[in-house]
Amino acid sequence: FSPAKHEVIVLKVIKLNHKLNYFLIPSCNLRYGNLTIWIGPEVPENFELVTKLQELITKTSSTLFRLTKKRAYIRNVIIAIPKTWGTPPESFNQSISGKLSRSQTSAQIWVRNSSPSDPYVIKTTPCGFPGAYLRLSPEFVLFGEDMTEMRGAAPEKIVSREWAKLRWGTFDEKARAEDTTKFYLHSDRSIFLHLSLPITGDVVNQSSPRSPCNEKQRLFDNSCVFVPSKQPQEKTYASLLYRADLPYVNDFCDNGDDVTPEMKHDEEAPTVHNLHCKGRSIWAVIREHPDFKDGNNPPMESDEPPALPNFTLLKGFDRRIVLVLDISTSMENYGRMGLMRQAVSNFIDTVPMNTWVGIVVFASRANTLARLTEITSYDARNILKTRLVNTTVQGTSIGSGIMKGLEVLETSGPRSLRGSGGSIIILTDGLEHNNPKINDTIERVREFGVRVSTIALGSNVAKDLEWLASVSNGRTHAASSGQFGIDAELQEAFASHHEQEDNFSVGSISILSQEVVIEKNSTVEKVFLIDSSIGENTRVAVFYQQKPAPLIAIKTPQNETFFQHEHTERFFFTHDESFQIKTIRIQGNAQVGTWAVVLENEMESTDMRVQVSVTSYQRQTEPLVISPALLCRSFAFTGHEAVVIYANLKQGEHAVLNAYVGAEITRPLSTSGIVDTKFIELKDNGLDPDVTADDGVYSAYFTSFTMQGRYNVKVTVI
């Protein structure tokens, strides 16, 4: 396969606490708000599916209320339907919304057309950490227990079981798939891994039903299985993470002297949950979650949830982004102004069609360069680029830039979306010297529901940037661009906002992003691969700082070479001298195979440093996508830290195995901005810290911290 996209994330080692971004916003009495359900674009129009989803979530809310002992329920739910669906029936009129806040752009529940039909959670994290999302099939939502492999299970019980994995970080209380037997020795008896010892049933031999399995056979013969009784029982048993279809299994297991035998957790059983959670019960893990730890959200008096879920139907949306750019005098250092203009120009050239983009600049105060403008053509992109300034002003007030960005979102663009939501991307290279400051804008950012992502350029940057991104569900990036020649980081930071900025649209896929040194009077070829899943609207961009510009050409899989002056129906070459970018657009669908961009340095006495970027869009087949993450983003530096870097590699919803996944970490070496890079391989072998072998999630510890500062992590698939 071709190299998948990379992403850049930033690890900031300066704070004194260990932060996690939880995907829901619980308020008092733990009513889960901002739960978003995304119906995939391949799902045919069917508003009965929406009605059934509402019924399922309502029942699940009541089940969770009971399971958490009257502590939690679901309150506000967004259901995002595909843009291709028609007008909803009149019965939905009261719940239709055109607004999308920052907390609603990452769905926690996906409804997709793919096997299997039973619900499951994508969970790449250790015990106690939340999963990525819960996947439901339309068949499960519409037909419930008739479509599940666990016949007779109430759908809300199954969803509640998966919720425990998604929200609270538990695991299945079953044997691992690779285990040859599902029995283990417990007090000299062979016991089936069903967690609650009092559950009764029969042990049968699947290959020979008339031949019972004796105590010895159970431990070695994988044909021996335990068939629990499905007869109603007077008592309630645990655990729901074992079987949801048994009518008497309706709770989570627990431990302690006051726990009844029917509810007691078996810590000896070699289940997936025990292995990952070190023998702790389901309830023991849940109690340690911030939702309930230290007495948070005690039981309510009511036997039913205080309110039913409130549903909002969202049919498509227009993406709105305001670029908030630093033009203080420090941006003159190391050519940063030129690098910023180049990166922003490239961002505007590659932002998806029908996106609304605005531009704000700030120094001691902020000014609007462009109100929200819809990207509908190349002319619209060029008009926005002409608004970019090339001058600097004294002073730095990041807060003024944020407030001006909110003003642009509130007063321009589609009228139906002006009330809230949207995205702001802030780039700055300095500390705050003028009011308002970042801290002065936090409440307004929260109220407006905007997602703020930040790019810290250089080493001496305001420390509240990452906090701002954290409280608004944004991304954080660090770039040392311009100071020590690592120009690619700034381009990659902007580009990452195109790459699946949300669940509801698919952006460009980064195939290649690399700095290249072209020796004097020589030629270099950089190879990239196009596979069958990508190749639409492929764009090659070459960024340069030295003049004269390099000569460029494109080499096809048939070994044909086309030079920059040869415009054809297949290739369109452009040169934007004001931003120092050369581009090649491959018209239509690029042919599958090995391509190369050819770079020539005509200078006879000077080497040349350029950056090469290749992006493309998916065809009908879903592309390979890599989604990296860290288990923590900030902590106190002592010199003995270890964090987990992991990356989920998949094509559609299918795991991609046996890939080489590497992480490149840029580390600070001094307070003056000197950095170096370290490479580590991420592995999908099930060995610590990897949670499960061969699930497409590649993991590794990173321990080589050098000092307090920002660490940039780039994950690449080869």
From TrEMBL:
Q: Which PROSITE patterns match?
A: VWFA
Q: Which domain of life is it from?
A: Eukaryota
Please state every residue range assigned to the domain named VWFA: 320-498
Quote the InterPro entries the UniProt record gives.
CLCA_N (IPR013642), CLCR (IPR051266), VWF_A (IPR002035), vWFA_dom_sf (IPR036465)
Q: Name one Pfam family in it.
A: VWA
PANTHER family for this protein: CALCIUM-ACTIVATED CHLORIDE CHANNEL REGULATOR, CALCIUM-ACTIVATED CHLORIDE CHANNEL REGULATOR 4 PRECURSOR-RELATED
Record NCBIfam families = choice_anch_X (NF041940)
Put simply, this protein is called VWFA domain-containing protein
